[in-house]
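Below is a filled-in request sheet from our internal design queue. Each sheet records the structural input a requester submitted and the sequence that came back. We keep these sheets so that new team members can see what a complete request looks like end to end.

REQUESTER: design group, bay 2
PRIORITY: normal
MODE: inverse folding
CHAIN LENGTH: 1256
BACKBONE (tokenized):
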């Protein structure tokens, strides 16, 4: 403030100099933010900042002193690896400005200064591996590029090895590309890069190969000179490479890279110019799916859309497609189809050009034959016993041919018109698609229905009357699958016979009314074949889909049937099934004690019948309820708002949904009701805003909110009292998500204010309000609207963590988890450590600026914890704090104030898990000075008087410090603490777990301890002495050793001890010892008498323990003649992948002994049809040499065809062993298939000869 006649504070800026701004480095004063004169409302913003900007523009030649440059460089190095990316970016920006400012002085005085040279050496020699350091190195080399300073050869090797680091791969790629560009005239340096590039491409580390392919080579392609150099190097590499598994993948990638970067050749060369065809063939037929996919992508793609396709390439397409129809992964299937789309487009373009140019139509024959062959292949894969993968792949390919615009679009349809007459499927082929309407997978039914809607699939003289009769018969089957199939059959029938809609609708309603009348007289009939109604309700829903709601006024029959027949029946069904559905769980499981009361336990047959009836009763009621909800949903979306539905009918539908979402316990019923209720809310909101008089008496969604809040607060709480409040949260969330924007979220405000007033409520009311808040915070559609309620919701959580009711505490913990996701984002991947992903963390400044009241609230929890027995609240505090990191650019909301409370809590913590989390949280909020303080405290503490829990906490803190401040001067402080422990031998008084943690710490910091210390450290636990004499300790040793991936059991004494212990041990230890003996590379017979071991293994084989599989495997390892077909077969067909892996190991041992017999071939074929892809690939690699000695790896499907073709008895064996027709039409639940991948007969095996010709 100024007084008249006095100079204003801003007048000092008239003569600009550095002294004018010295006050900025002092403590802020209040008058900085006040007016200084009539022109400036705020001195700091309106006067000071503009003056600084003006001064910075005038002082162009001003430079920093060397000591100031050192300080800035030290600041950059201190924070360039900070958790926040913004801080790292700022550090790099500061470094660039610093170097540019320094070089301004250097250029005027001559060559590069000694300081700048030292900075370059310092950056390259620094051991730190962080993105900020490499960014600074890149900036430095770009700025001093004109000087003679270059990166050393050792540093080049370092950055190539850093390609495996996903954090560094981008900047490292840029750095490598920059160095190559700078040294294009340096043959020695290019030779080094060539060598390193080849080594990286052939690296056994997949991360490095992937980084070169996905980041480095694309970075090279951005520069034309660099691209020319790398293409030349890659072609040389292709010529010299040896095609193993890794090199095969790399060769395929290089070929595709060269194919798409051949700009100098005008994009005219094919992939055959960059890779040998035999290599591509071996890749197309490889056992590894990823290699096959890469080869397929290579031969399908081309930079030129209209590039022609040779007959040889079409043959390769055929072989690949025929052998990969059973691909399991949806992502891989999508990739195959995506590349097929490219082929079809290329064929369309070529066909269009040929027809336009007037060339001989015979040139189109290869393309036409391929398209027709592809069509026939698809229909061949729709035969009986084809597995799901084969069926869905065939149907999707047919959609590409007949429905999509890949063979024809609006502008280019000449080729498709030429092809249409030849492409039309036969009636037999169309019947294959019609049979897919009876598929057990809905996705296949949807695809088949789409195809049958096409004009290509019209059938003359199709007997629709007989088809509808069959469909009605399926409606009368209680089997769950037939309910779904009859719906899609009916859709097909009504699409082809729209005039039959009225008669079908009337027929279904009559059937429905008859059955409802039956179950009204005897409710238990609903679980019988004569009384169940859900399949008919499903069919009614299908018929409703075909009703045109725009013309319903004209069609009086439709209005009459819906209002007078359908709706009353639906309400009646709902009333009948609601008592069962509302009070039962989805599984319908009947506990044994209840069953024992109902029936005589001794009569097992009657017991099973009663249990099955209970299952059938609930399933029938629940399915009926589900289809009623689906019918109401259709009626709401089509007719609500139309005069067809009366207000009374709408109120009845509203009451139906209200009851389901407030009284029902069945989660499936709740979920089925939510979709319809959301549609109802949206309609009611819109009608309310429209203000139409005839809809004025309809229920209002906001009144439901008031009713719910009143019910929660009322003493007579009639709401569903389950752990998660059943459908109540869904009801509230549905209303709020559909609230109109014009309502300004008033319902949301009313709801949250009411739910947050949790104090004084009963336990049930608290659970309901907390669960409702959880549903609101989890709903992504409410997004930013709920952020303002996060702070009070966290308050509610902490208040409820101390509740005496377990249900309240459980609900509060679930709400808190939802709040963590809302505040920090949903984790991108599963959190496998105590520390969350960096993307799910916030700086303290950013977090507490958004939620300021939580800063003091968290402090309060530490105080409250001292008076509370439960530590659940502290767990939540730690989880929240570990998501934060210190903000270096702001002093407010410092996390340093939490260091002492966290330290006090960690030392006094009783729970091991909580102690680990508290130590991790403590170090995560520490800055460097806080870490120094902790180490100083640890150094001064008396370790002798510390309890074991306190020692554990200290070691955990040291472990976290070693990781968090890696490469920092703190390492020396940690090592001094370790030396103190070592010299004073404190570890002798520690428990085993603390010694283990201490040993982990030594390994973590690479502590160089002497052999004498190590011996004393180990002997202090008497491990070596007790191992021979203490059996319990020895059993624990077997367990630990069996889990090791590097250590093997090779010592004679140890193996003899293991064999002695195996008989008198439990199943768990026996499995560990068996694993050790199997993994041992030592010949067992040379160490001990195998007779005793064989005798024990034979005994173990007769038991039902899981160890019998390992026993059989070990017996085969000891003597190949001891193998048993029955065991090996049962292991091969087992659902457990681990047991199947044991069968594969046994197969490998048996194949090594010599020529296999037909019994072993049967096992091979069973494993080739395993559901697990890894098992199939392993077996294929073991057996590929049987087909062709030159082929090391073949597709399992090819091997399956080969074995069945050359050994016909195997096909009979597969058909006998697989039970494919065991579903009765009277079963409520469909039987589960043990292996959905297997097939009763070989399909498309006629293509085997073409495949064998390719590999011959």
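RETURNED SEQUENCE:
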């Amino acid at each position: 403030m100024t007084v008249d006649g006095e100079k204003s504070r801003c007048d000092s800026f008239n003569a600009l100099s550095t002294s004018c701004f010295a006050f900025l480095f002092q403590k802020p004063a209040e008058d900085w933010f006040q007016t200084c004169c009539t022109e400036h409302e705020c001195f700091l913003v309106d006067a000071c900042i503009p003056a600084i900007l003006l001064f910075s523009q005038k002082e162009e030649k001003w430079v920093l002193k060397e000591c100031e440059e050192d300080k800035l460089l030290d600041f950059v190095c201190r924070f360039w690896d900070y958790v926040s990316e913004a801080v790292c970016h700022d550090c790099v920006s500061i470094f660039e400005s610093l170097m540019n400012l320094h070089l301004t002085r250097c250029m005027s005085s001559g060559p590069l200064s000694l300081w700048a040279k030292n900075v370059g050496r310092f950056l390259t020699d620094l051991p730190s591996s962080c993105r900020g350091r490499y960014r600074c190195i890149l900036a430095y080399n770009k700025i001093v590029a004109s000087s003679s300073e270059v990166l050393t050869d050792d540093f080049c090797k370092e950055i190539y090895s850093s390609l495996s680091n996903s954090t560094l791969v981008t900047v490292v790629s840029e750095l490598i590309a920059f160095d190559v560009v700078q040294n294009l005239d340096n043959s020695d340096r290019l030779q080094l890069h060539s060598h390193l590039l080849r080594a990286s491409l052939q690296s056994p580390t997949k991360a490095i190969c992937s980084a070169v392919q996905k980041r480095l080579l694309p970075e090279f392609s951005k520069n034309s000179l660099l691209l020319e150099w790398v293409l030349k190097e890659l072609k040389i590499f292709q010529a010299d490479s040896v095609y193993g598994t890794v090199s095969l993948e790399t060769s395929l990638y290089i070929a595709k890279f060269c194919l798409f970067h051949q700009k100098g050749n005008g994009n005219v060369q094919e992939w055959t110019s960059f890779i040998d065809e035999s290599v591509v063939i071996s890749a197309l037929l490889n056992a590894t799916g990823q290699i096959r996919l890469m080869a397929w992508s290579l031969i399908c793609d081309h930079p030129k859309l209209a590039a022609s396709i040779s007959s040889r390439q079409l043959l390769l397409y055929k072989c690949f497609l025929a052998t990969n129809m059973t691909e399991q992964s949806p992502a891989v299937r999508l990739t195959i189809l995506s590349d097929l789309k490219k082929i079809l487009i290329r064929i369309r373009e070529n066909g269009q050009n040929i027809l336009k140019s007037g060339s001989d139509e015979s040139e189109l024959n290869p393309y036409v034959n391929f398209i027709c062959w592809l069509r026939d292949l698809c229909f061949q894969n729709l035969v009986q016993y084809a597995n799901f993968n084969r069926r869905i792949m065939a149907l999707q390919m047919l959609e590409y041919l007949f429905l999509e615009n890949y063979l024809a679009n609006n502008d280019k349809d000449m080729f498709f018109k030429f092809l249409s007459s030849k492409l039309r499927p036969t009636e037999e082929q169309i019947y294959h698609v019609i049979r897919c309407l009876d598929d057990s997978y809905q996705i296949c039914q949807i695809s088949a229905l789409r195809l049958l809607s096409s004009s290509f699939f019209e059938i003359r003289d199709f007997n629709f009357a007989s088809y509808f009769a069959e469909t009605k018969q399926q409606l009368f089957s209680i089997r769950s699958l037939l309910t779904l199939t009859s719906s899609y059959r009916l859709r097909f029938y009504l699409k082809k016979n729209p005039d039959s809609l009225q008669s079908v609708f009337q027929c279904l309603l009559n059937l429905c009314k008859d059955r409802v009348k039956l179950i009204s007289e005897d409710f238990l009939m609903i679980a019988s074949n004569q009384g169940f109604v859900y399949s008919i309700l499903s069919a009614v829903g299908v018929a409703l889909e075909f009703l045109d709601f725009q013309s319903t006024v004209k069609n009086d029959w439709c209005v009459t049937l819906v209002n007078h027949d359908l709706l009353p029946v639906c309400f009646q069904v709902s009333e009948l099934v609601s008592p069962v559905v509302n009070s039962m769980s989805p599984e319908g499981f009947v506990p044994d004690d209840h069953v024992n009361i109902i029936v005589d336990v001794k009569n097992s047959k009657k017991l099973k019948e009663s249990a099955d009836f209970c299952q059938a009763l609930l399933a029938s009621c629940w399915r009926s309820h589900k289809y009623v909800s689906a019918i109401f949903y259709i009626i709401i979306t089509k007719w609500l708002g139309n005069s067809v539905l009366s207000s009374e009918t709408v109120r009845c539908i509203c009451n139906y949904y209200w009851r389901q979402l407030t009284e029902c316990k069945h989660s499936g019923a709740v979920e089925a009701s939510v979709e319809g209720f959301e549609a109802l809310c949206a309609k009611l909101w819109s009608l309310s805003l429209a203000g139409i008089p005839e809809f004025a008496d309809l229920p209002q969604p906001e009144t439901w909110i008031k009713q719910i809040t009143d019910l929660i607060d009322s003493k007579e709480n009639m709401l569903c009292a389950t752990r998660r409040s059943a459908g109540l949260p869904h009801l509230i969330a549905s209303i709020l998500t559909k609230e109109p924007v014009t309502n300004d979220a008033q319902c949301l405000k009313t709801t949250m204010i009411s739910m947050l007033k949790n104090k004084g409520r009963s336990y049930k009311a608290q659970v309901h309000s907390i669960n409702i808040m959880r549903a609101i915070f989890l709903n992504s559609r409410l997004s930013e609207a709920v952020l303002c309620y996060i702070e009070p919701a966290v308050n509610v959580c902490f208040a409820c963590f101390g509740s005496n009711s377990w249900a309240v505490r459980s609900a509060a913990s679930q709400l808190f988890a939802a709040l963590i996701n809302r505040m920090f984002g949903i984790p991108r991947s599963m959190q496998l450590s105590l520390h969350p992903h960096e993307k799910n963390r916030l700086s303290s400044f950013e977090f507490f600026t958004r939620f300021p009241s939580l800063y003091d609230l968290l402090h309060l929890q530490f105080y409250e914890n001292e008076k509370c027995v439960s530590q659940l609240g502290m767990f939540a505090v730690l989880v929240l704090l570990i998501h934060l990191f210190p903000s270096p650019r702001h002093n407010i909301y410092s996390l340093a104030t939490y260091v002492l409370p966290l330290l006090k809590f960690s030392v006094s913590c009783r729970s091991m898990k909580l102690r680990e989390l508290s130590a991790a949280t403590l170090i995560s909020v520490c800055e460097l000075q806080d870490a120094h303080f902790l180490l100083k405290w640890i150094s001064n503490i008396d370790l002798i008087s510390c309890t074991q829990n306190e020692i554990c906490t200290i070691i955990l803190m040291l472990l976290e410090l070693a990781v968090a401040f890696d490469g920092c001067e703190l390492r020396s402080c940690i090592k001094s603490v370790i030396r103190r422990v070592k010299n004073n031998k404190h570890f002798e008084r520690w428990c085993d777990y603390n010694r283990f943690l201490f040993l982990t710490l030594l390994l973590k910091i690479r502590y160089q301890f002497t052999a004498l210390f190590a011996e004393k450290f180990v002997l202090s636990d008497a491990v070596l002495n007790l191992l021979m004499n203490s059996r319990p300790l020895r059993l624990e040793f077997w367990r630990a050793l069996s889990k090791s991936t590097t250590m093997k059991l090779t010592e004679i004494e140890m193996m003899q001890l293991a064999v002695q212990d195996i008989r008198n041990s439990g199943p768990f230890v026996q499995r560990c010892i068996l694993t050790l003996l199997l993994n041992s590379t030592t010949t067992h017979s040379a160490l001990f008498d195998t007779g005793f071991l064989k005798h024990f293994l034979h005994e173990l084989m007769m038991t039902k323990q899981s160890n019998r599989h390992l026993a059989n495997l070990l017996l085969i390892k000891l003597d190949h003649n001891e193998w048993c077909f029955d065991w090996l077969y049962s292991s091969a067909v087992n659902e457990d992948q681990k047991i199947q892996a044991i069968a594969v190991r046994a197969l490998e041992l048996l194949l090594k002994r010599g020529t296999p017999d037909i019994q072993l071939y049967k096992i091979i074929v069973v494993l080739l049809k395993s559901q697990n892809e890894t098992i199939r690939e392993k077996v294929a690699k073991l057996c590929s040499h049987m087909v062709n000695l030159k082929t090391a790896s073949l597709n399992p499907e090819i091997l399956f065809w080969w074995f069945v073709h050359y050994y016909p008895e195997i096909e009979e064996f597969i058909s006998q062993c697989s039970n494919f027709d065991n579903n009765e039409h009277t079963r409520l639940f469909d039987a589960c298939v043990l292996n959905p991948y297997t097939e009763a007969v070989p399909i498309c095996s006629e293509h085997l000869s073409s495949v064998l010709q390719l590999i011959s």
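SHEET NOTES:
- Strands lie at 842-843, 884-885.
- Confidence is low (pLDDT under 50) at residues 1-5, 1009-1026.
FILED BY: M.R.
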